[in-house]
Design brief:
The complex is a heterodimer of chains A (606) and B (240). With 606 residues, chain A is α+β, with helices and mostly antiparallel strands. Helices cover 40% and strands 27% of the residues of chain A. In chain A, strands 1, 2, 3, 4, 11 and 12 form a 6-stranded mixed beta sheet that branches. A 5-stranded mixed beta sheet of chain A has the order 18-13-14-15-19, sandwiched between helices. In chain A, strands 22-21-25-26-30 form a 5-stranded antiparallel beta sheet, with no helix packed on it. In chain A, a hairpin with a 2-residue loop joins strand 2 and strand 3. Chain B is mostly helical and 240 residues long. Chain B contains 8 helices and 2 strands. In chain B, strands 1-2 form a two-stranded antiparallel sheet. The longest helix of chain B is centred in the C-terminal third of the chain and has 41 residues. The radius of gyration of chain B is 24 Å and the shape is elongated. The chains are: A alpha+beta (606), B mainly alpha (240). At the A-B interface, helix 10, strand 19 and strand 23 of A face helix 3 and helix 4 of B.
Amino acid sequence: MARIVGIDLGTTNSLVAYMDGQTPRVIAGRSGRTMVPSVVALTDNGLIVGDPAKEHLIRSSDRTIYSVKRFMGRGLQDVAGELAYFPYQLHEKNGVIRIQLGDKSYSPPQVSAMILKELKQRAEAALGEDIRQAVITVPAYFNDSQRQATKDAGMIAGLDVLRLINEPTAASLAYGLQQRTQGTIAVYDLGGGTFDISILKLKDGIFEVLATNGDTHLGGDDFDRRLADLFLADIRQRHNLDLSKFPDSIQALRLEAERVKIQLSSDPQVTVELPLPGNKDVYRREVTREQFERLVADLVELTLRPCQLALKDAGLKATAIDEVVLVGGSTRMPLVRQRVQALFGKTPHCELNPDEVVALGAAVQAGILSGTTQDMLLLDVTPLSLGIETMGGVMSPLIRRNTTIPTSSKEMYTTYVDGQTSVDLHILQGERELAKDNRSLGRFQLKVPPLPAGIPRIEVMFLIDANGILNVSAKDVRTGETQSIQVKPSYGLSDQEVERMIEESFKFAADDLQARQLIEARTEAEAIRTATEKALGLGGRLISADETQAIQDALARLAAATQGSDYRAIRAALGEIERVTHHLAEVLMDHSLKEALQNKKLSQVT
Amino acid sequence: MEQTSSMKRTELNMARSMCWHCQSEVTGEYFCDRCVKVQPLSKDSDYFTCLGLPRQLSIDADALEKRFYEMSRAFHPDFFQVKTDAERSISLANSALLNTAYRTLKDPIQRAEYLVGLESGSVKDIRSTPPADLFEEILSLQEDLEEYRSAVADGSHEELGSLRTKLESDKRSLEQRQRDIEAQLGTLFARWDALARATAGSEVTQEGKQAVIKDLRELLSHRTYVRNIVNDLTATLEAA
């Protein structure tokens, strides 16, 4: 069967990995780096992704999107509190955030799809084959809308997403494979934008998740912000300058904050250096690790409560945990390690690169799905309770949080009024009593035959699949007829919208291909022109004047074609050059051979 | 020993059913012997049958887990990724049923509640009712709780201390009561299991079984009641 890759679609960085026999490997790009910054920029030459896009952050911040994962499956009001931090324009359409990039707007799944495409191409280049199937990781605490948005992103990128797998559990697969661990483990995963804690039981190759908890809006980004806010206030005071009025500088400040944060994990003190707008002045100051830790202590504390809740749901005391595994770049912070160690009373594991371990685990899951990795099986859970709204705006739970998936729940519905032909249902996710305090997943309408009240009996099945995504089906118990249910998502793209985006993506792919071919043809034209001119200089005297003229005419036509945007014209001109220079090349070859022979003779003589 | 007898039961349950794919008789456990296609677990089978267990209340947790893992390896959707749509949907339905069965039977209380429902032929929820002899105690406790909450609201610290001590002692006695109920439940579990193992069909056994189910239902509803109060107390005391 075709190869399945494992993808870690992160808030700040993304990676792609594959199974090399029984060993998962992360694929590096041409630069040798394995991480692709999750950044997309619109340049004059089109959209670019990754490292080159990240460079655009400080030059054209309004045309560069980062941390798009924070917007996946969310509405504008969910992120209202942090809008000020983002340089790009956001608006909402049909419950889905749209991000303005130039004169077009994109949904978060479309932007994520661009990152996925980049990873797909990277894998295709490295493995020399078409990649169409993938396992993609999501934070364990992602709700249904966020999972669906991730799956949509995969589809838009031309990937068949065979499985969504939770990031901490993916990490446990990578660890388990390597160390053959048995017992109870806690995976503490603090990434760029999300925090997850998962408690697992590992036994005879079965990875059974007992409980999971987290915060999908807490991560390294927030630590950077605290530092950036400190610098911002400092600059205002010392330089009498409001940097927030300079979007490009704000991005430079953010990147500098990130750099300082990372360096403070190894150094006790770091110098901040930031050129101020106008290039006249430079902002400089020292930050100690202690200062930084005081700045973010409360954020680190925020991760401990979910840990305690997960332990409680698993029915375990902290001391019952055999091993603690750290995942995500933010767990490099000494403060995080201290707090985790204090909570569990154990030195946490960090043997595997915390940036790569999730992608490695996704590759292991890909191996399980393709049947090449045997003996391992992951039994994951749904992170949030699922329910429906009942009379009085109360949530009636159908599937409790931390239930092993796949799982299903059947409910029977009937009518309250004679001749009623439909029943409206509102699906919710969350742990609160009142419907309005929980996440609205979507609504749907049950079709009911017009009968006296209480007579119709419609059985609705709510099924959460192995991806943690809800599927709803309904059956009329009297007639045995099934009806297909279209849930209208509260915070997601409709099927039609996803379809359209896939089509658009193919169209862009064709445009992209054109652009790429044009660039390649131009590059080649330049190389051939230089080589031909050099050859003429060397061997012009060895060929006829007519021939020289023909070559010069062909060069002129090539130059003209290169000015145009039709790569086929350039290719044609290149073909002509090859034809008219054929004789010159032969003559030159002969000549240089003779010269070489003469040199040889000379060397033999002397 | 127990394992082999339960295996046979499963085989019997599966026997005489036809493979959905090749229409030959399925004698294997979960897969057709002839065409090796996965077979759907019967929708009518109860959770005990699903996990190949006798309908008894004492269950060896390790053996149950082993069985669950074994069946997960047989049915989990991960292993059906490259199979046909029909097989994938059977795998999904079987896994969902298996997970629910395991979750229900793993926990002794949920297991007993499920058995009571099965045996009384109704899925009616077990209500939460106070044990008759606790009635007075519970009334006075509710009063104490009210007083405590208003004392917290008023911030009258002198009263708070003594009320708190009283509530804490109430909580301890209720927790003891909870443990007593659980011990009584254990005795009922054993009685049920002895009857379940006895020769089936005899009239005496049937009557005995119904009596145990009635007692179980009552005790379970008391347990729920006491647990709810203890949780309420804990939350109130922790909130202050």
